[in-house]
Amino acid sequence: MYNFILLKPLSLLNKTMKLFESAITGHLDIFATQNEDEFEGKKEHWSEISIHGDPEGLRSLANLLLKLADLDQESIADLPAGAKGHYHLRRNIELSHSSDAVIVGRLDAKGTGAFYSRYIPKDRQD
Fold it and tell me: Backbone dihedral region of 120: left (phi > 0), alpha (psi from -120 to 50 degrees) or beta?
């Protein structure tokens, strides 16, 4: 599986965006938490991802997600077959200093449309 950073081809996402310009404006805080609860002597563990932002930060994240969703991976010559377009959100750059680093990307691979092997679809198919 290839990884591909959409820093160079960001202009394909937004023709007016400058190279290495942040896709996120406003304030955005994204972090993972580990949770534990006990019921009738049985412990349960789970993880949660929290995404919080001001209106501008949430809108810019929404715009980035829409651009990734609409990205025509097949037309990007620099993206090898089997790769997936994605964008790194870095703490203290695109995200708050208190955030965890985040990678937002496509699940489908260029050329094949295949998902990576760790993906397990949800049980309920709408």
Answer: beta
